[in-house]
Design a protein that fits this description.
inorganic pyrophosphatase (n-terminal core), 2 helices, 4-stranded parallel beta sheet
Amino acid sequence: MDIILCHQTVDFDALGSAIGLSLLKRAKIVLTGGAHPAVKNFLALYQDEFDFAEMRSIHPETIATIYIVDNQKSDRLGTAAAWLTLPTVQRIEVFDHH
């Protein structure tokens, strides 16, 4: 499984990056925790239009590729940071404009 991670308390910058990358890479977007209020409102209306997966539905042993958007620091990924060191992860790619 290929997944896309954003920083916690996702903003539109991170969400837009994740959605765009999900269309290019066919990976599931996993939000690591929290969202800005405007993003919450947007997701309440449009979440079903995109390929999201909840953290609790991810089986870590199936993760092969992790894409990280709008972030360079693992500590901003919350508990999902532990996935970076899984033996099944073959590739990690970071897409960040900062």
